[in-house]
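Q&A FORM
Asked by: J.P.
Topic: structure of DNA primase

PROVIDED:
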Amino acid sequence: MSGLIPQRFIEELLDRVDLAELIGSRITLKKAGGNYKARCPFHDEKTPSFNVRPDKGFYHCFGCGAHGDAISFVREFDNLGFTEAVEELARRAGLEVPYDQAARQEMQQARTLTDALEFANGFYQDALQQPGAALARDYLRQRGLDAATIEQYQIGYAPGDGQALHQAADNSLQKPLIETGTVSDKYGRPRDLFRNRIMFPIRNTRGKTIAFGGRTLGDDKAKYINSPESDVFHKSREIYGLFEAQRALRRLDRLLVVEGYMDVIALAQHGIHEAVATLGTATNQDSLQALLRHVRHVVFCFDGDNAGFRAADRAMENALELMADGLHLQFLMLPQGEDPDTLVRKEGPDAFRKRIEGAAPLSRFLFDRQSEGLDLNLPEHRGELRARTEPMLNRMPRSTLRDAMWHEMLRLCGRREWQGKREGGKDFRRFKGSERISEEPVEVRLSKDSSLSLAVIEAPELAEEVLEAARRDRSLRQAASLANWVRESGLKRHGEVIEALAFDSRARARFFHLFDGIEHVPERENILASARELLTPNQEGVRQQTITALMKRMATGQSTAEELQELIRLQRGEG
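REPLIED BY: S.T.
REPLY: Here is the structure written out as tokens.
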């Protein structure tokens, strides 16, 4: 919807807003020269590190990195979407947002649907208090929920009468209820979708009801059912409990993803407020992206049965293509027969938090799962492990994490050290137990130029990356020459490169002295591992030094607009 608001209006609005007055209406600011300082509202701190620059129109926290303008502050502080934040600021400034007619109609339609769903939510909450809901109240009591938690998550009850909701709604709401699927007219007459069920409203990050989940109190075949998708509800993009978690914690550093509504609610009642649930049977890439828009650290929590491990495997596989440096994914598998709801009640919140802290990182979980059933003392099984894991690692984007996991795969799949002895003139050899001992290679000291030249021969697909590295490092002359020849010759495989070097007289003359002075050529795995390290240099130290220097300039009021943009880019990990 942001694209439907003219950019010139947004710029005018930001010019009209007094940033210090806006932020000061929500937190306590103290004057510091021409700026203002405060304790950051987005993370816990004792020493103020939150700076407001009204003259430049931005705020910045040196503690957690929160940064932005008036719109981003309102979005973050009030949990609003972009459009709602613009509308709030326009209201304060006495301006009207200039939507075009199509946008106005789209927004009005969405508001009509959410108004109807809000009515249904209120109806279900009221129904829970009625005499006919005694069974529902008993069920919630048996599950250990107190009144405060029921109110926090707005839990309700759908009466068994198939038309109770439809008849309670006035004429203006009946059609929108049908459009959202909360009431069905599939059989020629209105009939409530949810009947004799405990009701869990699904709310978006602004707290608006957009759908429902219902848990049967009878013997229905479907224990849980959800609202169908609608113009305001897209199952794969919504996270149950996210709104409540944001309200309880103000700033989310981590999300614990569990499998059910009651798991989320039970954990919250025991003080673990970061628990949320994705909707549907699997954590797909859409739901993962929805999670990662709010945090960089996600812990997946699954039951320790076969179904739980299958769900964890799907979540892991869907996460691979999204993994980048700075993201932290972990997997917590519970004891078999337990779920978060039962376990937190049995062992208490402190013990459950210890389980969360000890969750397995994605890298360990991946190798542990793919190693199951394998004896890595056997060459065949090491080959099987590589066949399982290499395609998974190749799906990951280039990153330090992928390179580290690649090295771990090579370590696990590498040859074992042999222990041999002679008996009766015969040479008997065996493995030294079941230890994971990596190969002790001949020590080879190669220049960067020679290492990358070898890598291009072994893996011609690296030619473009080597040429890019050569543009940064002029000492890579022979690697650049070889990579350029490979690219221009259209060579795609190792064998093609070897054949061309052997039979193409011009190529043979050009690269005849390429490896003069190399007494030992490393194994292919070592060549490629070395190349990956050279092609993915660790720039973290340089990045941190640049960030520190830019922050100092900003704190003294000397930073330019270009330097500010550079700081934002580096802090986002784009540099």
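FOLLOW-UP: The CA atoms of residues 30 and 406 lie 50 Å apart.
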